[in-house]
TrEMBL record:
This is Corrinoid adenosyltransferase. The keyword Ribosomal protein does not apply. One of its GO terms (molecular function) is ATP binding. Belongs to the Cob(I)alamin adenosyltransferase family. Its EC number is 2.5.1.17. It comes from Paenibacillus lentus. The lineage of its organism: Bacteria, Bacillati, Bacillota, Bacilli, Bacillales. Homotrimer. Pathway: Cofactor biosynthesis; adenosylcobalamin biosynthesis; adenosylcobalamin from cob(II)yrinate a,c-diamide: step 2/7. NCBIfam families: PduO_Nterm. It catalyses: 2 cob(II)yrinate a,c diamide + reduced [electron-transfer flavoprotein] + 2 ATP = 2 adenosylcob(III)yrinate a,c-diamide + 2 triphosphate + oxidized [electron-transfer flavoprotein] + 3 H(+); 2 cob(II)alamin + reduced [electron-transfer flavoprotein] + 2 ATP = 2 adenosylcob(III)alamin + 2 triphosphate + oxidized [electron-transfer flavoprotein] + 3 H(+). Keywords: ATP-binding, Cobalamin biosynthesis, Nucleotide-binding, Transferase. Pfam families: Cob_adeno_trans. The keyword Ion transport does not apply. PANTHER family: CORRINOID ADENOSYLTRANSFERASE, CORRINOID ADENOSYLTRANSFERASE MMAB.
Length: 191
């Protein structure tokens, strides 16, 4: 199998059910999801296979990589195709459960924090910001075409997950988050 087809040399690419320009909103959306998936892979690669402290995080990240492919696939349809969508509401609900679990284990948060800490946490913060960009691209696409709304919800929840899990990675490695010095107290801990 050849990796190149030459069919995109004039600036167009295939989607499910048609062809579009390579800078089409659909390509921007699932291309940014693909970029995010690469960073998630980088984050997962930073977790040693024998790490008991972070094993659950690696498992979650590998699952998220599969789901990001599903998100990209769902956005690649030229026409609405609900029968073939892979992303449903249950994926965002599962992310919420993971976020709640991580938040319970994380130290209290009162102020904004700077992205960083451990190498893993720093890459997870990159995942968070790229995820937010992917969500913005998907919102732009949704204004122009009908799309699977569950993908939008999933991406929104996923950026929250990356924030929570970056803090978990720091906490488990006993590295404190660095507070933004000029931040007011903006977060409250619910009982």
């Amino acid at each position: 199998m050849k990796l190149y087809t030459r069919s995109g040399d004039a600036g167009q690419t295939s989607i499910i059910g048609g062809r579009v320009d390579k800078d089409d909103a659909r390509i921007e959306a699932y291309g940014t999801i693909d970029e995010l998936n690469s960073f998630v892979g980088q984050a997962a690669s930073l977790i040693d296979a024998d790490s008991e402290t972070l094993a659950d995080l690696k498992e979650e990240l590998l699952q998220i990589q599969q789901e990001l492919f599903d998100c990209g696939s769902d956005l690649a349809y030229a026409k609405l195709n609900e029968d073939r969508y892979k992303v449903g509401a249950e994926l965002a609900e599962r992310l919420e459960a993971w976020i709640d679990r991580h938040q319970t284990d994380n130290p209290p948060l009162e102020k904004f924090i700077l992205p960083g800490g451990t190498s893993l946490a720093a890459v997870l913060h990159v995942c968070r910001t790229v995820c937010r960009r992917a969500e913005r691209r998907a919102v732009t696409l949704a204004r122009q075409h009908e799309v699977n709304a569950d993908v939008l919800t999933y991406l929104n929840r996923l950026s929250d997950y990356f924030f929570a899990v970056a803090r978990t990675a720091n906490a488990r490695m006993q590295v404190e988050d660095t507070e933004y010095l000029r931040s007011a107290k903006v977060f409250g801990r619910k009982s």
